[in-house]
Amino acid sequence: MEVEAQTSAAAAAAGDELRSLLSATLSPDKAAVDAATEGLSRIAASSDPRFPISLLAVAAADGDQGTKVAAATYLKNYTRRNIDWGLSSPELYKEFRDRLAQALLQVEPFLLRVLIEVFRQVIEKDFVKENLWPELVPQLKQVIQSSNIISPGQHPEWNTINALTVLQSVVRPFQYFLNPKVAKEPVPPQLEQIASEILVPLQVTFHHIADKVLLSHDETNLEYEQLLLITSKCMYFTVRSYMPSRVKQILPSFCKDMFRILESLDFNSQYEDRATTRLKTAKRCLIILCTLVTRHRKHADDQMAHIVNSATRISSQSIHLHKLGPLSDRIISLSFDVISRVLETGPGWRLVSPHFSSLLDSAIFPALALNEKDITEWEDDTDEYMRKNLPCELDDISGWAEDLFTARKSGINLLGVIALSKGPPVVSAASKRKKGDKSKGKGERSSIGELLVIPFLSKFPIPPQGEDVSSKAVQNYFGVLMAFGGLQDFLTEKKDLTNTIIRNRILPLYSLDPCSPYLISAANWIIGQLALCLPEAMSTNIYHSLMKALTMEDFDELSCYPVRASASGAIAELIENGYAPPDWLVLLQVVMKRISVEDENESTLLFQLLGTIIESGQEKVLPHIPEIVSNIANTIMKLLPPVPDPWPQAVERGFAALVSMAQAWESSAPDENKDIEMRVWQSGQFAMAQTFSHVLQKAWLLPVEQMGLSVCSSLPPLSCVNDASILLEFIMRSITSMEETASMKVFELVAIWADIIACWDSWEEMEDQGIFNTIKEAVNFHQNFDSNGFFLKILPSRSENSSQSSVISWVSSFITRAIEAYPSATWRACSCMHTLLHTPNFSHGAEDTRMTLAVSFAQAAFSRFKSVSDSPSGIWKPLILVISSCYICYPDAIEQVLRKYDSNGYAIWASALAQISSSSFNPGLSSESEIKLAVLTLATVIEHLLALSMGGTKLLHDCCVSLMESCIHLKEVQEDGDDGDGAEDLDDDDDDEEEEDTDEDDEDYNQDSDDDDVREETEEEFLQRYAAAAGGESIEIVEDGDIDDETQDIELGSLDEMDVQQVVLSMMKIRPDLIRAQTFPDGLMERMAETFPEYEQLFHVHRQA
Predict the structure, then answer these.
(1) Cβ(717)–Cβ(711) under 8 Å?
(2) Which of 755, 742, 937 is nearest to 834 (CA)?
(3) C-alpha to C-alpha distances, 190 to 135, 171, 178, 237, 251, nearest whole angstrom
(4) What are the structural domain ranges in the chain?
(5) Peptide bond into 535 cis (omega under 30)
(6) What is the SS3 assignment for 177?
(7) Which residue in 148, 369, 642, 649 has the fewest CB atoms around it within 10 Å?
(8) Residue 1099 near residue 1085, CB atoms below 8 Å
(9) Which InterPro entries does the entry link to (predicted)?
(10) Is the CB of residue 1063 less than 8 Å from the CB of residue 936?
(11) Radius of gyration of the chain (CA)
(12) Contact assessment for residue 496 and residue 489, using Cβ atoms and an 8 Å cutoff
């Protein structure tokens, strides 16, 4: 008894201490908060298995709200960091799980929101993945049925809303396929059990509560509304991917209740805030209807007509959009989406076509027309106005489009789907009666765009000159322009109609005086949307109209930024689709004049347009690039923040524009024999390099110098690292003398750049490529101009987390981490490792540094290899070859590295080397440098294996076979390099002939297939496609990066000068028993004798043996 009392007292004291520490984390005193945090960390690190239970006890006990929330939050973070804490004590983990479930039924809403996240982690692991909680569903069923709303008086302590929230967390993981690679994955048994034991009985409750809520006109009962909302969410998670058998049975009754809820909505009410829960329930019901149409049509076919009627009724409320909040707008958006989805199904035409006229007139067009809310938004937040009303993501008009979110976007999408609709894919009765009359065939059917949409839009004329934005004419014409923007796919097939619309309905707007900025911005947007199908004859008129919009000045108090921004985007679309402005210089001058420090948003867009102009204009704009670079650089330097804060977007876009100009200039280099052109080009290159140097000095060096020693440990912001690297590469490539190196401060820039990339951790393929290229250029610069070994000197780091290091070490840090980032980074990092290892300057007085690099590279490469070694893949090649480079340099040290990582590491690597070097490996070694390195390394490995008395092993045999095959392969590659250019012209001629034939075949095929009916995808086909796509994701993740980089010429330094053939054949002469002892594949020795006839006698010995 005494021991128990002592234990109880100790537990109470521990609980008091924990409560005190949690309470202290809420103190306004920072020192007290830090001390409390440290104390909690100490307790958490003590590995006390009861720590989570203690936290839960504090959260669930009586006490002040702050301490309880602190306990719940700490518990959430602790379990997230220590997901396997329960493995050490299964009994305590089960106790914690049961206590957590009990607590969730009773805690207040503010605690429920936090603790439910802890419960989700438990559910994901115990119930979904491992299915180790068989009692959960029966117990939860009992709790829900006995809870305070469903069975008042039985268990008042069990809160129905809490219990349903627990149910929501239980079904939430099943919204996604658990095994998406399986085409017809059965419904998980856990979900079937939930549906049978909980959801089916719950439907009765849902219907009963819906009756109470919908028939009552009294004050809203929030608990009832919450019950409907949470139950709707549970049903959505249940059917989003799967369809449990028992849910099929309750689907009709559940749909009827959803229709009743949707019918109860009052969009004309002034009390949206009070009805928020009802609106959320309605939103969820519409999302469920979208899911039923998209995923479970055969189970919802008998509900299709009701679905269309319900969605159509809601969509007609778009006339109230100007006074509705975001939630109501989203509901109307979803109603449009539901109709779009139905229209894409087989019975869609029959169900929706009777509503086409009313939809267009009373639902879609009111959503597209300009309203007071749009005008206010333009005045208050032009960026938000553009995001909502000039969307750039409407390129794909489809009934399956997702994430449109606003009524206007969804209305535009639905209009596009309707316009393309041609009715059901059946032959008409008239066509059957007149078999010989081909004019009535399928190819002659008119689309609804021609029959209904265009005639409807033609009712609205261009507003008279001088009309105010508040006039109905302007507001309706804005809707017309929005509609045209959604007809992109339809108009692409109707060239004459597109010409008419552009000539008569869009271009005249630019002649109005004054122009309405609302209409002009929409007109610009349409031109951008229709860039692919614009009439060539009108291109010049269109371009001049856009130029007028690009230079439109602000009105008195109205910003015309959306006009200029949309014009900028439309001009970029025109140029990208092949239009050449009549005068590139004028366009450049306009853009340069408008780029300014005052308006960063506008400069951001213009920098993007400038990049497009440079990339597309090429020789037309090249003479002006050095001057443009100077002007842009001046603007960027003014926009750069004075302290190392993250750069504004305008600066980032400016750097991207500078990169496009640098790349365009480098690609324009004339032939060396053209002396005059070369001198002009070099002069421009030098001027640009000087400018880039000034920009990088301002960005990287000056902020720290200006702030003094107090911030000397702060790195510049990690902004535009890739683009800045490309500019630094340009500078280094432009240097021709030590004087230029000093004047442009190249060594200082390289040092800070290396320090920056050593801290880089935002790995992204398109953001990193320039860094790898700059590393190689930096090595070249080191060879040519670093006579004092600056790259190897120890320098102070400006990073707070780094100590002193050298440029080479910082670069090494980047590439050893890059090797783990993503596949193409692995290839590029390995290529850089070869370059660093075999740079000639390293071999003189820097062997320690070189060995350190080799060891770190081998460690990183072998670690990455082990992570992908389960099955052979293309990513093996760069990893094994970079270890080979390290091994060739320092065999003993690298062997130790491999054995330290894995006792059998050396044999694993050698076996993989033999495998990638064999003729059967795909993708095999292909470049001369790759094969040379493999041959030299295999020869060294074989010598080492013989020294270890491993002469009769399979490993030695595999290495010998791969060595022979690689020698043959190397000779073939070298011979192909000598005489492989002669057949290209013949191949090109053949290709041209084949292309002509193919074009004719394509035309015939297109004529035959244009009239084919589009067959609707079945559910089985959808599931197979979904599974194939899911299965392909993992393949793409592994192989994406090695497509472009499959063949690489790697840097071998002095190794490249070795006579590889002599090395191998000398070894065979010295060790004739090596050849005699092996059993080579049939024909291999004969191929060796044919390839190396001067050594035929050596291989003849083996054939005799």
Answers:
(1) no
(2) 937
(3) 11, 9, 12, 13, 19
(4) 14-347, 904-975+1060-1105
(5) no
(6) coil
(7) 642
(8) yes
(9) ARM-like, ARM-type_fold
(10) yes
(11) 36
(12) no
HSE-CB of 24 using CA atoms within 13 angstroms: 17
Residue position matching structure tokens 């390290």 = 886
What single-letter DSSP state applies at residue 264? T
Specify which residues 805 forms β-bridges with.
Answer: 795
Which segments of 25-107 does DSSP mark as H helices, in order?
30-45, 51-60, 65-81, 90-104
Q: Are 861 and 819 in contact (CB under 8 A)?
A: yes
Q: How many residues in total does the chain contain? A: 1105
CA 534 to chain centre: 31
Signed CA dihedral, 226, 229, 232, 238: sign only = negative
Asked if residue 641 has a cis previous peptide bond (ω within 30° of 0), the answer is no
C-alpha span between 934 and 882 (Å, rounded): 10
| CA distances from residue 291 to 241, 420, 647 in whole angstroms, order as listed | 8, 23, 43
Phi and psi, residue 617, nearest 5°: -75, -35
DSSP state of 923: S
Give which of 324, 325, 354 is closest to 339, Cα–Cα.
Answer: 354
CA distances from 250 to 199, 235, 1019 (A): 9, 11, 21
Low-confidence ranges of the chain (pLDDT < 50): 1-10, 424-443, 707-712, 982-1014, 1033-1045, 1105
SS3 assignment, position 710: helix
Residue 575's H or E segment, with its range, is helix 561-576
Angle between helices 517-529 and 561-576 (to 10 degrees): 20
- Distance CA(1026)–CA(1046), nearest Å, equals 29
Note the pTM of the prediction, 2 decimals: 0.79
The Cα 729–Cα 744 span in angstroms is 13
CA–CA distance, 287 with 1055 (Å, rounded to integer): 64
Superfamily of domain 14-347: Leucine-rich Repeat Variant (1.25.10.10)
Q: 771-813, pLDDT tens digit by residue?
A: 999 999 999 999 899 888 888 888 887 776 666 788 999 999 9
On whether the CB atoms of residues 753 and 728 are closer than 8 A, the answer is: yes
* Alpha carbon distances (Å) from 171 to 150, 231, 236, 1016: 20, 11, 9, 31
**Residue 1045 in tokens:** 């980089």
CA distance 735 to 688: 12
Distance CA 322, CA 88 (A): 60
DSSP string, 209-259: HHHHHHH--SS--HHHHHHHHHHHHHHHHHHTT---HHHHHHHHHHHHHHH
- Three-state SS at 1062: helix
Q: Report helix angle 136-146 to 160-171, nearest 10.
A: 150
Distance, C-alpha 406 to centroid of its chain: 23
H-state helical runs in 918-953:
928-947
634's enclosing H/E stretch is: helix 625-639
Residue corresponding to tokens 């309880």: 68
Q: How far apart are CA 658 and CA 770, in angstroms?
A: 14
Local structure of 795: helix, strand or coil: strand
Query: Rounded distance, CA 859 to CA 886, Å?
Result: 10
